[in-house]
Amino acid sequence: MKSESSSTLHPSNLHRTGYDFSVLVQAYPTLSQYVRTNAYGDDSIDFANPQAVKALNQALLKQYYGVAVWDIPKNYLCPPIPGRADYVHYLADLLAESGTNQLVRMLDIGTGANLVYPLIASHAYGWQCVGVDIDAKALRNAQQIIETNGLQQQISLRQQANPESIFKGVILPGEQFTVTLCNPPFHASAAEAQAGTQRKWRGLGKRPPQALNFGGQSNELFCEGGEAAFLTTMISESRQFAKQCVWFTTLVSKATNLPLVYRELKKVQARTVKTVEMAQGQKQSRFVAWSFQSGLFKKHI
């Protein structure tokens, strides 16, 4: 039986009609131990159980994205696949509309141990992907996913040696990318990240734990100055690589940060700016894309 539909997802999103747990359990039998009938009579899992969420991801990646083996270390971020896929599909629309969808090279800033964006993008669109992270352990796990699934020709990894930098040191001289994507850390401190985690648990009707059990290392969840500071640095650095990348993009989780983003983009004289709204159920999100190339879209901020 399928779970409740997520009709607000992108039309190309394979999870738009909900999860078909009979199909997913067949693909990944371990998932069966976590499937229960919810109050609405639909098959579901306990989304407050990290092991159940990981098993769901393993099933989704195997069934829909050709990833036979996927795992993450304990306490690393286990992202929701449908939302991650939406970002990739809307990026594909952006590239198609701007005529930049041939031989795509994608740079994933903060790819994490899960490697989800490159896994989806390489399978769904055949993009060449480079994943970047500052966390050596995360990159070792991501590399194991690549090698175990024979994806060395599609996906490669780089470590950012300087935690203060985003593009510097990972975009090589003369190298060209079609698009960058990023899901920035959006908390400003460990305490703020903890409060956000506890809100998630309460939203699921569970008692909040004392630890960050929803998953995520410090660099995945927070940075000094929070999302606003991270975005400011990213936009400032992007100007230095204006000729090496067609589109720079990033999720902006807090709508209140959009005015800041637009001001910073004016400062660096981005020629083209586009904000793409997305939704997953009741959750609203968006990414901002900008380019220093002319003639892609009429500038609007």
From TrEMBL:
Please give one Gene Ontology molecular function term for this protein: 23S rRNA (adenine(1618)-N(6))-methyltransferase activity
Q: Which reaction does it catalyse?
A: adenosine(1618) in 23S rRNA + S-adenosyl-L-methionine = N(6)-methyladenosine(1618) in 23S rRNA + S-adenosyl-L-homocysteine + H(+)
Stated role: Specifically methylates the adenine in position 1618 of 23S rRNA.
List where in the cell it is found: Cytoplasm
Which protein is depicted?
Answer: Ribosomal RNA large subunit methyltransferase F
The entry assigns this protein to a family as follows: Belongs to the methyltransferase superfamily. METTL16/RlmF family.
- A Pfam family assignment: Methyltransf_10
Question: What Gene3D superfamilies does the annotation carry?
Answer: Vaccinia Virus protein VP39 (3.40.50.150)
Gene Ontology CC terms? cytoplasm
Q: Matching CDD domains, A to Z?
A: AdoMet_MTases
> Which EC numbers does the record give?
2.1.1.181
Query: InterPro entries in the record, alphabetically?
Result: METTL16/RlmF, rRNA_lsu_MeTfrase_F, SAM-dependent_MTases_sf
Instruction: Cite the entry's keywords alphabetically.
Output: Cytoplasm, Methyltransferase, rRNA processing, S-adenosyl-L-methionine, Transferase
Native source organism of the sequence:
Methylophilus rhizosphaerae
Gene transcribed to yield this protein: rlmF
SUPFAM superfamilies given in the database record: S-adenosyl-L-methionine-dependent methyltransferases
Cite a single GO BP annotation.
rRNA base methylation
